[in-house]
Amino acid sequence: MIPYGRHHIDADDIAAVVDILTGKPLTQGPMIEAFEAAVADYVGARYAVAVSSGTAALHLAAMAADVGPGRCLVTSPITFVASANAALYCGGHVAFADVDPRSVNMSPEALGATLLRHPETSAIVPVHFGGLPCDMESIRDLARTSGARVIEDAAHALGARHADGAQVGSCTHSDMTCFSFHPVKAIAAGEGGMITTNDPALYRRLLRIRSHGINKLDDPFQLPEAATEDGQPNPWYYEMQELGYHYRITDIQCALALSQMKKLDAFIARRRTLASVYDAAFAGFSNLRPGQPDGRDRSGLHVYVLRIDFAAIGKSRGQVMRELRARGVGSQVHYIPVTIQPHYRKMGFVASDCPAAMSYYEQALSIPLFFDLTDEQQAEVIAALRDVVG
Ligand SMILES: *Cc1c(COP(=O)(O)O)cnc(C)c1O
Q1: Would you call 263 a catalytic residue per the annotation?
Q2: Distance (Å, whole) CA 133 – CA 131
């Protein structure tokens, strides 16, 4: 069975983890800062804060952007639920800006209309769907006019580049960028996430709320009289200055992720090669086309999505997935629009809120794309699609 995605672990990765397990600190040790420095350096950001998951990264970023009661977070309907849930964790509410049908990313036009309806927006969370960076210049301009922060959900896009050549994560068009290191993403930490930023105040706040809201760096004490005795600092003293979380990542995970970083460019190069082979093969198919045909040379290519005209082939998507599976080919749908999840329907969202997202969803199917997919396996995938979809 060829899965739609899979991580790649080599002997160096194993050695890096074994090294931690044989006598190094398991958590709160030096691997965390080393991994943060490696990602900050790679993407070209001043600061990076590693956390326990991409979801934790989004939650902390939303909190740092002051999403809270009465405040709104605007995201894309075509994303993993975590992008929207970040607002709810903060006690805020969510609005969705529909996608552009060609890029499947947040449409700046739709965002403009959503911001007019929601002047209480604190954060805009564009999602670089499938690793293809959003139109960040337009989104940034709209955010400036509305006074909202921009948080890039780059869970799919480590290693991708913006249209102007800047690395995703450099925050040249945003306040913060969030990454995930779940094994199906660009690099694996087991579970893990990161926030990059160039803003020292956001950085300081993120460090605090990652670990219970306890003072970090040289945060001034709020009760200085408790911090000293006879003019001497009290060595045990710390302050919980606001309600934070325990979202720390371990040294075990960071050792693995740091080792994986060395292979990131090779991982992406292979994904790009595989995508170009798919693109060429599917040009000859009639009822199926690549879902995000543009920007292949700068996309992180987290998933390869097809748009299939299921009505034209006379088969349901479920039937196509089962027939592919019977030929040893895994597939998946990215994503069910968040707006139609039961939890969001209960808040009043309906399918017609985001028509472009719905029409994309009706046709979407992701097929295998990962570093270890061999040329032979890829040929099997293409042959299976020719049989099943025609
Ligand atoms: C994976 C993912 C997340 C959440 O990351 P986790 O590390 O699984 O918590 C958020 N947004 C998107 C778009 C994702 O794909």
Answers
A1: no
A2: 6
33 within some domain: yes
Distance, in Å, from the CA atom of 187 to the CA atom of 158, rounded to the nearest integer, reads 8
Task: For residues 107 and 160, state if they share a domain.
Answer: yes
Report pLDDT for 246: 98
What's the 335 CA to ligand 1 centre distance in angstroms? Answer: 12
Give a yes or no: residue 95 inside a domain: yes
Closest atom of ligand 1 to 181 CA is: 7
Asked if residue 127 has its Cβ within 6 Å of ligand 1, the reply is: yes
Same domain, 235 and 292: no
Domain holding 364: CATH number?
3.90.1150.10
pLDDT at residue number 185: 97
Mean per-residue pLDDT over the chain, rounded: 97
pLDDT band at 390 (very low <50, low <70, confident <90, very high): confident
Q: Is the CB of 55 under 6 A from ligand 1?
A: yes
Strand-pairing partners, residue 152, are 177
Mutate to test the pocket of ligand 1, among 80, 83, 94, 153 (most ligand atoms within 8 A of CB): 80
Same domain, 276 and 230: no
Interior CA angle at 316 toward 315 and 321, to 5°? 100
Is residue 6 one of the residues assigned to a domain?
Answer: no
The helix, strand and coil proportions of the chain, stated in percent and rounded to the nearest 5, come to 40, 15, 45
Q: Are residues 304 and 239 in the same domain?
A: no
Q: Domain holding 255: CATH number?
A: 3.40.640.10
> Cβ neighbours of residue 278 under 8 Å, at least 6 residues apart?
290, 304, 367, 369, 378, 382
Q: What is the pLDDT of residues 64-123, one digit of tens each?
A: 999 999 999 999 999 999 999 999 999 999 999 999 999 999 999 999 999 999 999 999
Q: Are residues 195 and 284 in the same domain?
A: no
Counting ligand 1 atoms within 8 A of each CB, the residue from 182, 194, 245 with the most, and so the one to mutate, is 182
Using one digit for the tens of pLDDT, what is the confidence trace for 256-293? Answer: 999 999 999 999 999 999 999 999 999 989 999 999 99
User: Are residue 257 and residue 271 in the same domain, yes or no?
Assistant: no
Whether residues 44 and 169 share a domain: the answer is yes
- Are 72 and 205 part of one and the same domain? yes
Nearest to 59 by CA among 246, 283, 225, 277: 246
Residue 189 Cβ contacting ligand 1 at under 6 Å: no
Query: What is the span of the domain harbouring residue 366?
Result: 264-389
